[in-house]
Structures are given as structure tokens and as C-alpha cells.
Known about the structure:
Distance between the termini: 40 Å
Strand content: over 45%
Largest sheet: 6 strands, mixed
Structural class: mainly beta
Shape: globular
Number of helices: 0
Amino acid sequence: EVQLVESGGGLVQPGGSLRLSCAASGFAFGTYDMSWVRQAPGKGPEWVSAINPGGDTTYYTDSVKGRFTISRDNAKNTVYLQMNSLKLEDTAVYYCNLFGTNYWGQGTQVTVSS
């Protein structure tokens, strides 16, 4: 059974940082692209970032380029999202996704507020 468990969300001031983690199990983690998707209050899902199986190719939506970094540790079956210089508009529930599938985690809330 595929399981994705996010952690690391919280309340942070604008300009602050958070590191999200997603622990994966139930599939061959090291052979799949992984992604992060977020959903802000009252809005639809927004794809944020993705990473290839080897971790050497990454993709970002324009609004987070230069501020967010996706990475993975295949030995730990974990994908990360380092978020720096957080803005109010980054407030959302962040979900880990097995890219191209309907497998999602439960989400972790990120709130950026002064």
C-alpha cells in the first residue's frame, strides 16, 4: 500500500523558512518522480515542484523559483521541500504526490503570517 506522510508545516513569519518532509512507503521510491502540490484557502490545487528519481533534475513553478528547493534521499524514502523567504501567499496546505498518480499524503499546513 502506497503511503505518503508529510510533516514540517507550521506558522512562520514572512521572510522565514520551513522544511517539509514526505516519508514514502509501499512502492519503489527511488524509481519515481515525486512532486509537491499546494492548495491555498478557497483556491484550487497548484503544482509547486517536482524531482526526478535520481534527484539531479528539479522543476519549480515560477512563483517559488529561487526560494524553494526540492530534494530527496532515496536511502530514507523521503522527499523534502526547503522553503525560504516565505511570503503571505505561500500559505496553503502542502501535499506530497507520487507524480502522475492519485497517491497523495494527508497534507501539512503552512501558514505565513505576521
